[in-house]
Design goal:
CATH architecture of the largest domain: Alpha Horseshoe
Number of strands: 0
Largest sheet: none
Oligomer: single chain
Distance between the termini: 50 Å
Shape: elongated
Radius of gyration: 21 Å
CATH superfamily of the largest domain: Tetratricopeptide repeat domain
Strand content: under 5%
Length: 268
């Protein structure tokens, strides 16, 4: 049987970097599940590798062929929590939230501390605007792996849920922790993976303003300015805050910052 690290490498070569696009992390979540050792084979050394149901499903996911991916994952072991988690992601991409939730829950039944699936259950409740319950699952995932780099995404999701409940202080604290664990957590662009990250927050202009403050506080001025521009383009009207918030003190003498204050951007 093809080992999962090798499978990921093969998918990457076939689909121009699937592993990174799929997880947002350099390490696949299958490291959390026991993968059987590669079986001995009589195939010649230069023979093409076996295409497993998981690998076939990963290829379909990379092509955004989610129904085909679900069919492929179903052909794998029903006792494999990783496959159930990936099926959940595929269902969620099709907005089949009930099926996605059942798949994530089955993954957690098979592996109680499967933090990626626990987090993904939270994304279902977030999508349903049940933010309180989403927060419960994000916190549960964080409790299992509080200092793990993967938890950056969990904290970012927690921040989004707090923000949606207008608990801005808690949202800011969660996002600060997310950034401390992964400075690039807000730059992840993958739309599917073993960890789903929520970015569909209401009042997106204010959300981007908060992210700009985080970047400015960490001295990442270019990204801070980029997110300030996004906030203004999306309708952020409290320009006086830019002159008051201490996080922007180091930016105020920059021409780019002054241009933003003077600009009346077109609302997207």
């Amino acid at each position: 049987m093809l080992s999962r690290p090798l499978a990921i490498a093969i998918v990457a070569s076939l689909t121009a970097g699937l592993a990174c696009a799929q997880t947002g992390n350099p390490t696949p979540d299958s490291s959390n599940a026991s993968a059987p050792p590669a079986a001995q084979s009589d195939r010649p050394a230069d023979a093409p590798p076996q295409i497993t149901p998981e690998l076939r499903g990963d290829i379909h996911m990379a092509r955004k062929e989610y129904r085909e991916a679900i069919d492929a994952f179903h052909q794998g072991s029903p006792r494999d929590p990783v496959l159930w988690n990936k099926m959940g992601i595929a269902h969620q991409q099709l907005t089949q939230l009930d099926s996605a939730l059942k798949s994530y829950q089955q993954a957690v039944r098979l592996k109680r501390d499967y933090v990626e699936a626990i987090n993904n259950i939270g994304t279902i409740y977030y999508a349903r605007k049940n933010y309180r319950r989403a927060i419960t699952y994000y916190q549960r995932a964080i409790k299992v792996a509080p200092h793990d780099a993967r938890s950056a995404s969990f904290y970012a999701n927690l921040g989004a849920a707090y923000y949606s409940r207008k608990q801005n202080k808690e949202a800011y604290a969660a996002n600060e922790t997310a950034m401390s664990l992964d400075p690039e957590v807000f730059e992840h662009r993958g739309t599917y993976g073993v960890i789903l990250e929520e970015r569909n927050v209401e009042e997106r202009a204010k959300w981007h303003y908060y992210v700009a403050k985080l970047y400015a506080k960490n001295g990442r001025n270019e990204l801070a300015l980029q997110y300030l521009r996004k906030a203004l383009e999306e309708g952020f009207k409290e320009k006086k805050q830019l002159e008051k918030d201490p996080e922007f003190a180091a930016l105020r003498d920059l021409k780019e910052f002054q241009d933003l204050l003077a600009l009346e951007p077109r609302v997207l």
